[in-house]
């Protein structure tokens, strides 16, 4: 007969509001009456956590749209510097004309005028852009300004749907921590950058994939990751940390299903375009290779400080080598950690490594990290420190562009100030990376594992014993596999990982 202590680790604790675990959340709750009392009930009634988070997300997204009003009204269409001084720039209205949607050209098949021969976006993003052009309720006889405005509105509406899907998936990924998704909904950088580009499509698909993995639907995870990769390249990186975690846990069948689903869905989306318009299809990949050093990267600081350009092939090679070294370090961390890291932790580290070593760090790239940060390090203080750095960079890049496009007036931020802004948002990302690495090495510091949880978003990895590990630990025996690696028991917080 198992004792109460033995069975308690298998019971799923009730949802705990963040005001009981996070001092910043508790202080912020004073705006709405203070922290929840002991008799507060969550998950019942009309205002469930998910519904509240969705409403907050819609409100914040709408505020982000309001912030773009100066550009929507006139700044996109009257010169270049005004859209920067008002910090409301967006690629969307400019590419409506620049990529042929205003002229009814077919993405990837029809050649564009100018230097950009074909649309330089992955296939699923191109389809998203095309659908938005179909939803633009104007005719070719209408003024081009009105058509660009309506195209931006159509895209904004579709991106808002992606944002809602994103927060719903994040809220449901950690069953016991739905309120962590409030970090995503209230992220100021999300509101400011959501409608700069089309990144939210891939981000929503990636969040849905992580939800599927957390529920043990490994094939569905792979299918969604493949679709996300068909919209943006970065989601494929999540297969790397998942490989290491499944290797350590011996979950090869689960990883095989995920890998098969990713490859199959990516090919299903891409093969028709590859066959019908091969030159247009490969433009995204050739453009990524040929693109010069651009805004937001440490490479730009180097070239500006030295006054010497760096050959793009040299940058590409160096970036790949640094990424390989960092990924090897992350893999070593995953294998040597005293307890197997959580999937979200390694996912954040790998995507952050990709962004930090890349030759461009556009302001909207922060969107890639926001949901991963909410799952990997759900602490309001650290999240807000990082977000403050990103908001400062958001303002810095637009004021720098205003400075460079305002002629002799030089209104805005000079080059030296912009370099400080770049360094600030790079350091903000590194700060969050350092905290996550510490959480991996010292599990009792991990907010998610404070109650004795293992990996609530880990699916088949949650509570699984180790098969391969550089540091031996004692884990819960696997009822379907070989005995676990034996070693010292790991304990933290009020609970315990492992069994007697």
UniProtKB/TrEMBL annotation:
Membrane protein topology class: Multi-pass membrane protein
Keywords: Cell membrane, Membrane, Transferase, Transmembrane, Transmembrane helix
Region Disordered, annotated ranges: 475-500
Keyword Membrane attributed: yes
One family name in Pfam for this protein: GT87
Residues annotated as transmembrane: 48-66, 118-137, 149-171, 183-213, 219-247, 254-277, 318-336, 343-363, 383-405
Protein name, entry field: Glycosyltransferase family 87 protein
Main location: membrane
Subcellular location: Cell membrane
UniProt-listed InterPro entries: GT87, UCP010361
Family: Belongs to the glycosyltransferase 87 family.
């Amino acid at each position: 007969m198992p004792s109460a202590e033995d069975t308690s680790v298998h019971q799923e604790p009730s949802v705990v509001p963040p005001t009981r675990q996070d001092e910043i959340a508790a202080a912020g709750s004073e705006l709405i009456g203070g922290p929840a009392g002991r008799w507060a009930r969550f998950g019942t009634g009309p205002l469930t956590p998910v519904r509240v988070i969705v409403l907050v997300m819609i409100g914040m997204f709408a505020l982000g749209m309001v912030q773009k009003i100066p550009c929507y009204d006139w700044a996109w269409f009257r010169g270049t510097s005004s859209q920067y001084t008002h910090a409301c720039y967006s690629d969307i209205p400019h590419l409506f004309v620049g990529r042929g949607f205003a002229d009814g050209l077919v993405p990837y098949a029809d050649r564009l005028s100018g230097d950009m021969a074909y649309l330089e976006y992955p296939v699923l993003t191109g389809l998203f852009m095309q659908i938005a052009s179909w939803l633009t309720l104007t005719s070719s006889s209408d003024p081009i300004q009105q058509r660009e405005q309506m195209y931006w509105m159509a895209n904004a509406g579709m991106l808002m749907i992606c944002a809602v899907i994103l927060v719903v998936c994040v809220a449901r990924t950690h069953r016991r921590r739905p309120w962590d998704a409030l970090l995503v909904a209230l992220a100021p950088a999300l509101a400011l950058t959501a409608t700069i580009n089309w990144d939210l499509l891939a981000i929503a698909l990636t969040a849905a994939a992580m939800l599927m993995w957390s529920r043990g639907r490994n094939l569905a995870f792979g299918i969604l990751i493949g679709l996300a990769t068909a919209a943006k390249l970065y989601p494929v990186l999540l297969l790397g940390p998942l490989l290491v975690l499944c290797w350590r846990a011996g979950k090869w069948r689960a990883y095989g299903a995920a890998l098969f689903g990713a490859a199959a869905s990516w090919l299903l989306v891409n093969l028709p375009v590859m066959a019908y318009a091969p030159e247009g299809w490969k433009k995204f990949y050739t453009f990524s290779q040929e693109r010069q050093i651009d805004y937001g990267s440490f490479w730009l600081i180097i070239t500006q400080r030295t006054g010497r350009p760096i050959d793009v092939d040299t940058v590409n090679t160096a970036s790949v080598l640094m990424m390989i070294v960092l990924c090897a370090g992350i893999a070593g961390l995953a294998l040597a950690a005293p307890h197997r890291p959580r999937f979200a932790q390694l996912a954040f580290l790998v995507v952050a490594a990709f962004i930090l070593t890349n030759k461009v760090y556009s302001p909207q790239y922060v969107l890639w990290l926001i949901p991963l940060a909410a799952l990997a390090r759900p602490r309001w203080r650290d999240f807000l420190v990082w977000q403050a750095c990103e908001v400062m960079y958001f303002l810095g890049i637009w004021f720098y562009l205003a400075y460079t496009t305002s002629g002799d007036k030089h209104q805005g931020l000079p080059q030296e100030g912009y370099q400080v802004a770049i360094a600030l948002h790079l350091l903000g990302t590194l700060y969050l990376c350092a905290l996550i690495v510490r959480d991996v090495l010292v599990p009792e510091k991990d907010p998610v594992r404070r109650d004795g949880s293992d990996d609530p978003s880990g699916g088949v990895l949650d509570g699984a014993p180790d098969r391969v590990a550089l540091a031996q630990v004692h884990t819960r025996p696997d009822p379907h596999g070989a005995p676990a690696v034996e070693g010292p028991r790991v304990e933290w917080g009020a609970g315990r990982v492992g069994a007697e």
